[in-house]
Each structure stands twice: as C-alpha cells, then as structure tokens.
Design brief:
heterodimer, A: 198 residues, nine-stranded antiparallel β-sheet, 15 strands, B: 132 residues, mainly beta, four-stranded antiparallel β-sheet
C-alpha cells in the first residue's frame, strides 16, 4: 500500500513525521507566533499544533530556508548560492517520503501550494517558492503568488519533482519559503504533492 | 542463427508488466540453455548507444531459465521498467554458452504505447503564516 509521510528535521534533531501538525512559517527562528511583515520572507519554520497552535518542534526547531533571490537562500548562515552543495539534505524544510510495499518507480511528481480545498487554486494571501535538492537545480521555483493568480497544481505554477527509480522508499528533499501579501493569518494555505508510480 | 523481426507491437502500454517467452533452437533442434547466460537489452531505435533496459539471467528475477533444457527462457519486464517510456524501441537477446560463444538469438521491435492510467497518489499538509 502506497503512503506519503511529510517529515521535518527537528527535535534531536532527526527527520520526524509532521503528523497532524501544521507547518508554520513565522517571523522568528524560535517563536512560531511571531508574524511575518508583509512583503518580507519568513525567518522561522516550525511545527504547530494548529494555526499556529503550540510549538511541536521539540528540542530543536525545524529547519528554515529563506528565499533571498531567485538563486540564493539563507538557512541561518547568511546568504548562499542555491545548489546541492550549499543546501544540505538536513537543511531542507521538508522531506516528503513515499513508500510502497512493493518496489516501484515514480514519475510525474510535483509539489505545489493551494488553498486547502481545490488543488488548482492558489493559496490565499501568500507568495511562495520551492526548491528540490538533489537534482542539480540552482534556482527557486515560484509555486504561489496569490496577487498574480499563480499557484495550485497547475503546469508552470508548481515544482516538478524528479523521477525516481525503483525502490520501496522514495525521498524528496524540498526547501520552501513564503511571505504574506497582506496582513492577517493565512489558513487557506496547504502544500501538496502528487505523483504516478508503477 | 538470429531470428529477426520478432516484433512486439500490440497491447503493450507504458507501466505494464510483460513476460516475454522465448524458445531457442539451433539446426539440431531445441538448444539446451543449461549453464548459458542470457542478456536482453532494449534500446532506442536509431540510437543504439542508448540502452534503455538491460536484463540478465544472472538474476532469475530478470530472466528465468528454469526450463533451460527445453531451450526456454522467460524475460520479465516489470511495470517500473517502462513507466516513463513510450515509443518504438528495438530489443536483442544474446546467449553466451558454457564455452563462451555468444550468439544473438532474436531481435525485433517493441512498441510501447503511452499510458495515462498509471497509479496515482497525492497528499497534502496544512500550513499557516501570519502577516503583519
């Protein structure tokens, strides 16, 4: 039976399941309740029990990757050029794990943001970029811009993930950065992944 | 002697599993494949340097020679072998016997039709961000 697990690198730290928690993008590396100033990028990424609820990261906060420019990021050590060397697996915001009891290959995988209801609708009130580590990419992909009507599981508005060869476990290492376009809490904001496999 | 133009042109869709059954003969009749090594390759037509798929009897899950004395082999194409490919390809099957002699026993085309009905999964996670 195929299954997805969303994981963050936190607590001990180690990769741990997000479970029923929420990914919270905040204005602080240590406080998930800290809001993000409109037009600026998040400074912290956390696990919250709600919107945002209480912090569920454990002893070490989840990894944060901030968008700096189309080819640069900041994971806490200042501005760096975006590539597989500078961004380690354990610095990525998320690890999406796909498993199947039998050995399968994956194809047509994609990563997107949406409003939490309709997968082809963009998330509301945010702009977001994503990056897949491990595929020699060197630039962010814009996956959401509510004001520009960009986002959702639509061609050209999502991050294409790599095809993976046969195995019972598949991992996609993804960095995500987001910023608010307006004041207020953004709850119509989900991240999604979809793929075909055989 | 090579048996050519053994084409597989119908009913093969990307992502499908396929077992290719081959019986090898020589001028004396059935060729005993005991101790032989069989290699199957599939490559893009007109691009022989682009091998798409390779199978060997060294792994019985790839090529089975259980009925070797009867000259029979089964080549297992798994669904994941063809998940991401479609179009016309060529294949070759080589047999190397116990004395090290190699012969291409059969060749042909394989036409893989693009399939849009691969198994599909999706998942999502809730996010939150507060703007000020």
């Amino acid at each position: 039976m195929a299954a997805f697990t969303w994981e963050v690198y936190s607590d001990t730290p180690a990769w741990m399941s997000v479970g029923a928690n929420t990914i919270v993008f905040s204005g602080s590396a240590s406080d998930l309740t800290s809001p993000v100033t409109v037009g600026t990028w998040q400074v912290g990424t956390h696990l919250g029990s709600g919107d945002p609820g209480t912090d569920q990261c454990g002893s070490t906060h989840s990894r944060n990757v901030t968008y700096v420019s189309s080819t640069q990021f900041d994971s806490g050590s200042g501005t760096e050029t975006l590539n597989d060397t500078n961004l380690a697996q354990t610095e990525c915001t998320l690890r999406v794990k796909f498993t199947d009891t039998s050995s399968v290959a994956t194809s047509n995988a994609r990563f997107y943001s949406y409003d939490g209801t309709t997968e082809t609708n963009e998330a509301v009130g945010i702009e977001a970029y994503a990056f897949e580590r491990g595929v020699s990419a060197t630039a962010w992909t814009q996956i959401n811009d509510d004001s520009g009507n960009i986002g959702g599981d639509n061609s050209g508005e999502r991050l294409a993930l790599s095809d993976q060869t046969t195995g019972t476990e598949h991992y996609f290492y993804v960095a995500v950065s987001a910023r608010p376009e307006t004041v207020g809490g953004k709850t119509q904001f989900d991240l999604g992944v979809a793929l075909t496999y055989s | 002697m090579t048996i050519e133009q053994q084409d597989i042109t119908q009913d093969f869709y990307s992502g499908n599993s396929k077992n290719i059954l081959i019986t090898v003969t020589d001028p004396n009749g059935i060729k005993d494949l005991t101790g032989c090594e069989v290699v199957f390759v599939m490559f893009q037509e007109n691009k022989t340097d682009r091998v798409i798929l390779r199978k060997t009897s060294n792994n019985p899950q790839e090529i089975d020679l259980t009925d070797a004395t009867l000259g029979k082999m089964t080549i297992f194409l798994k669904s994941y072998d063809t998940l991401s490919i479609y179009g016309t390809f060529r294949y070759q099957v080589n047999v190397t016997d116990t004395s090290g002699e190699t012969e291409t026993v059969t060749t042909g085309k394989i036409n893989i039709i693009r399939s849009y009905a691969a198994r599909y999964r999706k998942n999502n996670i809730a996010c939150y961000l507060s703007g000020q």
